[in-house]
Specification:
Elements (H helix, E strand, L loop, with lengths): L1 H27 L2 H5 L7 E7 L9 E3 L4 E7 L4 E14 L9 E6 L2 E7 L10 E8 L7 E9 L15 E4 L4 E8 L22 E2 L2 E3 L5 H18 L4 E2 L2 E3 L7 E6 L17 E6 L7 E7 L2 H14 L7 E3 L24 E2 L11 E3 L6 E5 L12 E10 L9 E6 L2 E7 L8 E8 L24 E8 L17 E4 L4 E2 L6 E5 L2 H7 L12 E5 L5 H18 L7 E4 L10 E6 L13 H11 L29 E7 L7 E7 L2 H12 L1 H4 L6 E5 L2 E5 L5 E5 L2 H9 L3 H35 L1
Parallel strand pairs: 11-13, 12-14, 12-15, 15-17, 30-31, 30-32, 32-34
Antiparallel strand pairs: 1-10, 2-9, 3-8, 4-7, 4-9, 4-10, 5-6, 5-8, 16-17, 16-18, 19-28, 20-27, 21-26, 22-25, 22-27, 22-28, 23-24, 23-26, 29-37, 33-34, 33-35, 35-36
C-alpha cells in the first residue's frame, strides 16, 4: 500500500514538473511575437493633391510641353484603385483635329485626349477621371503630361504664345493603400519606421513601461535624433506613451524589470539588444524593441543601433561591445559646411546628375547648404565661391546666361561660352547684407542676405537663348546642356566664430549653441523629476530637430533632473519643465535655484507695444497670476560659465506643452521665434527682446576691440591716440637707451 502511494506521488510529481516546464517554455519561445496574430489588413484611402506633391509646372506650351507630378509608395503599403482626377484649360487658338494631350503613368501611355473638340471658345475647361493600372506602380512613380499643340498647319512657331494648356490646381490623385505584412528583419532599418519614399512628416511613437529615468531619456533622445536625421526636411514627431499599446509602427523601451503590460511575458535579455517584432495586437504594425538588463543597457543598445544598423540582420541583434567613439569637433556636423577647407559641390549632392541641366527651360540646379550660424562676417563682402561650369557651344549671335541665386534672390549672372565646351571658371561671392537700421549697435548686427541659421538653397539656372529666323521658327533640335562642375567650391575656412546671444531665432532654426558639437557632448538637459509624456515628447522632437540640422545622432547628450546635484559648469543647458515646479523645495544658494532666478529675469522687463525703453534704468517688474495656457522660451547667459548659454522651455499645462511643441515643429512659427524670449499662447507668438546681451566665440584681440567700439567713435579715437602715445613712448625710451649705450661705449 505504501509502495502504491509512493508510486502515485512520484507520478504526480513528474506530471507537475512537466506542467511547469510547459508553462515556462513559452516565455523563452519568441515565436508568438514574430508574426503576431492574424487579422484583416487595414485599408486606407488617400487623396494626393498636385499642390501637396510639389507640382509647379501647371502651364504647358510649345517648347515646355512636358510636366510631371511624382508620388511614392511605401515599403509596407500596397496601392490599389489609383485614379487621376484632373482638369485643364486649353488655348482657344489650338486646332482641334491635330492638337492633343498625352497622359503617361511611369512612361506607359494611359490615354490621348483631344484638344478643343466640340468645345466653344467661351467654355474650354475639360475634366477627366482616369483609372491608372496598379501593376505599373513602383517605389517612385510619375505621371507625365505632354502637349502636342498646333495653331497653324502651314507655319508653326513653337514659341508662339498661342500654344498653351494649363492644368488646374484642383487636380489630384486618389488611391487605396492596403497594409502589407512585411518580415521582421533588422536589415530593413530604418524602414518601416521611417521610409525615404514617404514625403510626409515622420510620426513615430515612443513607448515606456513607466516614467523613464534619466538614462532611458538619454537613450530615447539619441534615437529620436537619429530618426530626425533620417527624416531631414520632412520633420519628425515622437509622441510619448506610458504602458499603452501603440496602434502603429512604434519604438518600445524595455528593461528586465520594467515591461509594458502588452509585453509583460517577453523574455529577459542578458545583453543590450535590439529586436524587431510584429505588434501582439496587430501583426501588420512593427515594434522596434530597445532591450536591456537596466536603463544603462538601453543607451548602449541605441548607440549600437545608430552606428551599427547597416550590419544588423535577422530579427534580433545584441550589442557585444562598442569601441570608444571619438568626440566630435566643433562645427564638424555632416550637414554643415566644413570650416577647415573649401567644400566642393560634389560633396553636397544627393544624386549623380544633380549638377546637370538639360533643355531650354530645364529648371535650376539646386544645392542645399548650411553654415555654422555664428560665422563672424562683420565687414566681410561675402562668402567666396569658385564656380566652374561648362555648356554646349552656341551661335555667336546668341547670348545665353547662367544665373546664380540664393534663396530665390539673384546674386550674379554669367554669359555662357559660345565657342567650345571647355571649363569656365568664375569667382564670386555670396553677399552678406548688413542690417541698415541705424538705431542698432554693432552688438545687434545681423544678416539679411543669407540667413546663417537656416538651410539655404543655391540655384544655378541655365537660360539658353533661341534665335528666330523668318516668319516661322521651329523648336530647337534639343541637346542643350549645362553642367556645374563638381570641383566648384565654397569656402568659409577664413571666418572666425563669434556672435551675440541670446538669439532664439538661431536656437529655433539651427539648434545653436547646442549643435555646435554634432554629438551634443556639451549639452545638459534639465527636466522635472517626474516629466509628463508631453514634456518628454517636446524634448524628443527637439533632439529630432537637432539631428535633422546636423545629420548626426546626439549620442553624448546628458539628462538630469532639476532637483539633482548635477554639474552645471562648462555646459550649455536646456531646461524643459513647468515654471517654478521645484523652486519652493530648493535651497536659496543651490545652483538650480540660481538657474531658475536667471530664467525669470528675461521676462521681468516692462514691455510696451512690443518694445522696451533703453533709457529706463529701473526695470518695472509685473507679477501676474493667470489660469490660461501659456508657454515661454527664454535664452540667457549661464551664471555658471560666461561662455555657456541656457535655453529654457516652460509650459503651464499639458495643453501649453502642445502649444510649445507645435511652435517648434512649424516652419512658419519658427520664423517668429526670435529675440531673448517668446511667449506662446492660443493667439500666437509674442517676442520679447531685452538689452542683456553676451557674446560667445573667439576673434583676434584687435578685431574684438574694433568691433565693440565701432559705434563709439570718440572712445575709439581716444583709444587710438593713447595707443599711439604708448607706442611713441616705447620707441622714445628704446632710442634713448640706444643713445646712452652708444655714448657709454664712446667714453671707453
Amino acid at each position: 500500500m505504501i509502495k502504491k502511494l509512493l508510486n502515485t506521488f512520484l507520478t504526480l510529481l513528474l506530471i507537475s514538473s512537466a506542467y511547469k516546464v510547459l508553462a515556462i517554455e513559452p516565455m523563452h519561445d519568441k515565436t508568438m511575437f514574430v508574426n503576431g496574430y492574424p487579422e484583416s489588413a487595414q485599408v486606407s484611402s488617400l487623396r494626393l493633391s498636385f499642390e501637396k506633391l510639389g507640382f509647379n509646372d501647371y502651364k504647358l506650351d510649345g517648347v515646355n510641353n512636358n510636366s510631371r507630378v511624382d508620388f511614392t509608395n511605401r515599403i509596407d503599403k500596397l496601392s490599389t484603385n489609383l485614379k487621376l482626377n484632373f482638369s485643364y484649360t486649353n488655348s482657344p487658338s489650338l486646332l482641334a483635329n491635330v492638337s492633343h494631350l498625352k497622359v503617361y503613368f511611369n512612361d506607359n501611355l494611359v490615354t490621348v485626349l483631344p484638344i478643343n473638340e466640340q468645345l466653344s471658345v467661351v467654355k474650354n475647361t475639360v475634366s477627366h477621371s482616369l483609372d491608372l493600372n496598379a501593376k505599373y506602380i513602383q517605389d517612385y512613380n510619375q505621371i507625365r503630361f505632354e502637349l502636342v499643340g498646333y495653331y497653324d498647319l502651314r507655319c508653326q512657331d513653337y514659341f508662339s504664345r498661342s500654344i498653351w494648356t494649363e492644368i488646374n490646381k484642383s487636380s489630384h490623385i486618389t488611391l487605396d493603400q492596403k497594409q502589407l505584412a512585411i518580415d521582421s528583419r533588422l536589415e530593413y532599418l530604418p524602414e518601416p519606421f521611417f521610409d525615404t519614399k514617404d514625403y510626409n512628416k515622420l510620426n513615430l511613437p515612443f513607448v515606456f513601461a513607466s516614467t523613464p529615468n534619466t538614462q532611458a531619456i538619454e537613450a530615447a533622445a539619441t534615437l529620436s535624433s537619429w530618426f530626425g536625421a533620417q527624416a531631414d526636411w520632412r520633420g519628425a514627431n515622437f509622441p510619448v506613451t506610458v504602458n499603452k499599446t501603440p496602434e502603429q509602427h512604434s519604438v518600445v523601451f524595455i528593461t528586465n524589470d520594467s515591461k509594458p503590460d502588452f509585453l509583460k511575458d517577453y523574455p529577459d535579455v542578458e545583453k543590450p539588444t535590439v529586436e524587431l517584432i510584429s505588434s501582439p495586437i496587430h501583426r501588420y504594425n512593427k515594434m522596434l524593441l530597445i532591450l536591456g538588463r537596466d536603463e544603462k543597457d538601453l543607451k548602449t543598445a541605441v548607440t549600437g543601433l545608430v552606428f551599427g544598423h547597416k550590419i544588423m540582420t535577422g530579427r534580433s541583434a545584441s550589442i557585444e561591445a562598442i569601441n570608444k567613439l571619438p568626440l566630435r569637433k566643433a562645427y564638424d556636423a555632416p550637414r554643415w559646411l566644413r570650416n577647415d577647407r573649401p567644400v566642393h559641390f560634389d560633396e553636397l549632392i544627393d544624386y549623380p546628375t544633380q549638377l546637370q541641366a538639360e533643355g531650354l527651360n530645364n529648371g535650376p540646379i539646386k544645392l542645399n547648404v548650411r553654415f555654422a550660424p555664428d560665422l563672424f562676417t562683420w565687414r566681410e563682402k561675402g562668402i567666396p565661391i569658385t564656380l566652374q561650369y561648362r555648356n554646349t557651344p552656341e551661335s555667336e549671335t546668341l547670348n545665353s546666361r547662367l544665373n546664380m541665386l540664393i534663396n530665390q534672390e539673384f546674386i550674379s549672372g554669367f554669359l555662357l561660352d559660345k565657342k567650345d565646351t571647355s571649363l569656365t571658371t568664375a569667382k564670386t561671392l555670396l553677399p552678406l547684407i548688413a542690417n541698415t537700421d541705424t538705431t542698432q549697435s554693432a552688438e545687434d548686427f545681423s544678416l539679411e542676405g543669407i540667413n546663417l541659421a537656416n538651410r539655404n538653397e543655391l540655384n544655378f539656372d541655365f537660360r539658353f537663348a533661341v534665335l528666330k529666323k523668318g516668319e516661322c521658327a521651329v523648336a530647337p533640335p534639343g541637346g542643350e546642356y549645362g553642367v556645374i562642375d563638381g570641383n566648384s567650391n565654397i569656402d568659409v575656412s577664413g571666418f572666425d566664430h563669434y556672435m551675440a546671444l541670446p538669439d532664439l531665432n538661431v536656437f529655433a532654426n539651427s539648434g545653436f549653441p547646442f549643435t555646435k558639437y554634432a554629438d551634443l557632448q556639451q549639452t545638459l538637459v534639465l527636466i522635472d523629476e517626474v516629466p509628463s509624456p508631453k514634456a518628454l515628447s517636446v524634448l524628443f522632437n527637439l533632439t529630432g530637430h537637432f539631428g535633422a540640422i546636423t545629420g548626426y545622432p546626439a549620442h553624448r547628450i546628458s539628462v538630469a533632473h532639476l532637483n539633482e546635484d548635477a554639474n552645471l559648469d562648462d555646459k550649455d543647458i536646456l531646461v524643459i519643465a513647468k515654471p517654478n515646479s521645484i523652486a519652493n523645495n530648493l535651497d536659496e544658494d543651490a545652483q538650480t535655484n540660481i538657474l531658475l532666478d536667471n530664467n525669470q529675469r528675461a521676462i521681468k522687463q516692462a514691455i510696451y507695444n512690443g518694445a522696451y525703453d533703453e533709457q529706463t534704468t529701473d526695470k518695472v517688474e509685473v507679477s501676474i497670476k493667470s489660469s490660461g495656457d501659456m508657454a515661454v522660451i527664454t535664452g540667457f547667459q549661464s551664471p555658471f560659465d560666461s561662455e555657456r548659454s541656457i535655453v529654457s522651455l516652460s509650459a503651464t499645462s499639458q495643453k501649453a506643452f502642445t502649444l510649445l511643441d507645435d511652435a517648434l515643429m512649424s516652419s512658419e512659427a519658427l520664423a517668429q521665434i526670435k529675440g531673448s524670449a517668446v511667449v506662446i499662447n492660443s493667439q500666437g507668438i509674442k517676442t520679447i527682446k531685452t538689452d542683456e546681451q553676451y557674446f560667445v566665440g573667439h576673434i583676434p584681440v584687435h578685431t574684438l576691440i574694433w568691433f565693440h567700439l565701432s559705434d563709439h567713435p570718440f572712445v575709439l579715437a581716444l583709444l587710438s591716440i593713447l595707443t599711439l602715445l604708448l607706442i611713441s613712448f616705447i620707441i622714445w625710451r628704446l632710442l634713448q637707451a640706444l643713445t646712452y649705450k652708444r655714448l657709454a661705449e664712446g667714453d671707453k
